[in-house]
Amino acid sequence: MNSKVSIQRAGGYDALRSHIEKLIDDLGGWRAHVRPGDSVLLKVNLLLARDPERGATTHPAVVKAVAESLLDYGASVAIGDSPGTADKGVERVFRNTGMIDVAESLGIPWVRFETAGTRTIPIDDKLTLQITRAIDGFDRIVSLPKLKTHSFMLYTGAVKNLFGLVPGFQKAGFHKLLPRPSEFSRMLIAIYERVPVALHIMDAIVGMEGNGPSSGELRDVGLLLASTDGVAMDTVAAHIIGIKPNRVITTKLAQKAGLGQGDLSKIEIPGGELSDFILEKPFKLPPMIPDRLVPTWLVRYLGRLIWIRPVPIEDKCVRCGICAKHCPVDAITMRGERLPEFDYKACITCLCCHELCPEDAIELDRSWIAKRIG
Ligand code: SF4
Ligand code: SF4
C-alpha cells in the first residue's frame, strides 16, 4: 500500500491558514476527507495544563487554522482531548493550553471526554480497554498530534495521540497492566485500528527533543505534516528528526498488522522530496529504558545492572503530590513537606511521574551500564 504524507514549511505560529490549506490541497483538499455539513472533532494533544509555548501540547494557532479552514469549508467543528493529568480540573487544561481561547474566538465547543461515558474495544483475546463515547457524536475525527520524543515510547506522534481517547483517570492503569513499551504499543495499535481518523495533521513547527513528552527541550523544526495514514506520517516524522522508523514500536507493529505504511520507499511526498526536510542535527533522544537497550529475556538477568530511575529535584519540586497520585503501582509516597519518596523496587519505569510532573522536577537517573549502552 502506498501512502501520501504532505509536508509544508512554516517558520512560526503566525499566519498558518495558507500553510494548512496547501497541506490539505496536496492530499486532495477537504472534500477528499470530509463532507460539507459533517461534524468534525479535532483531537488535540493536551498532556497537561501548560502554556503552549512550552511545546508539550498542540499549539492553538495550528488548531485555530485547521478549525477556520474546516468552518469555511462548511463543516462544524469541536475541540477535544482527555489530559493525562487534570488535577485542578479539565477546564484549566483547556484554558492554559489556549484551547478555550480558540473555541471562544470561533464560537465552537470544546468537549470533555471524561463525562461522556465509554465503550469497550478489545486489545487482544483477553484484554479490553474503554475509550470515550464523546467521539461517537461526530462524523469525522481529525487528529492533531505534536511532534515530540517520549521517555517511555521513544517517540510520540499520530498513533500515540489517540491514547487521549482513553479517559484521563484510566490511563495510568494501562501502564500497570502493560508495563513494557512493546505491550503498551499493542494497546495503542488496538485504538488506532478501531478508531477511524479522517486526517492526521501534525504540529511539527516547534517540536520537543530529549526528555519528552513534557520535560524535554524545544526544537525548531518548522514543519506541518498531514496524511490519512498516521503510520506513514509517524514514519516520515521520525525519519526527519533522525529516528529510524523501525525503532518506533507502534510503527513496526502497525505496519506488520497492515494498518499503515512504515516503509519510506512506499511513501509519497506530494510536490517535494523527503530528503529536503531532514534535520541536519537529529533530535536528542530520551534515555532508553532497559527493554529498549537489550532483549527482554536478557533484562531478566541484567535488570539489576541496567536501570533508569525517576529522581525528584529538590529545588524544583513544589510537593504537589501529582506524581504520587498518578503512579500506577503506588511507588511514590508523600510525607508532608519532604521530597516525594520513591520505592524503586516497586517502580515499573512507566515514567508517568516524569511525564506528568507540572514543574519538570523529576529527572531520570541511569545506571552506569545504561548510560554506556543507551
Ligand atoms: S516531583 Fe513534581 S509532581 Fe511530584 S511532588 Fe514534586 S512537583 Fe509535584
Ligand atoms: S515511580 Fe514513576 S516511573 Fe516508577 S512506576 Fe511510579 S510513576 Fe512509573
Q: How would the global form be characterised?
A: globular
**Largest beta-sheet details:** 9 strands, mixed
- The Rg value, from CA coordinates, equals 20 Å
- CATH architecture designation of the largest domain: 3-Layer(aba) Sandwich
What is the element layout, followed by pairings?
Blueprint: E1 3-4, E2 6-9, H1 17-25, E3 39-44, H2 60-73, E4 76-81, H3 90-96, H4 99-106, E5 110-112, E6 118-122, E7 128-132, E8 140-144, E9 146-150, E10 154-156, H5 158-161, H6 168-177, H7 181-194, E11 199-209, E12 217-227, H8 230-240, H9 249-256, E13 267-268, H10 290-293, H11 296-302, E14 308-312, H12 322-326, E15 332-333, E16 341-342, H13 352-356, E17 362-366, H14 368-373
Parallel strand pairs: 1-13, 3-4, 3-8, 4-5, 8-11, 9-11
Antiparallel strand pairs: 2-12, 6-7, 9-10, 11-12, 14-17, 15-16
The protein binds iron/sulfur cluster (2 copies).
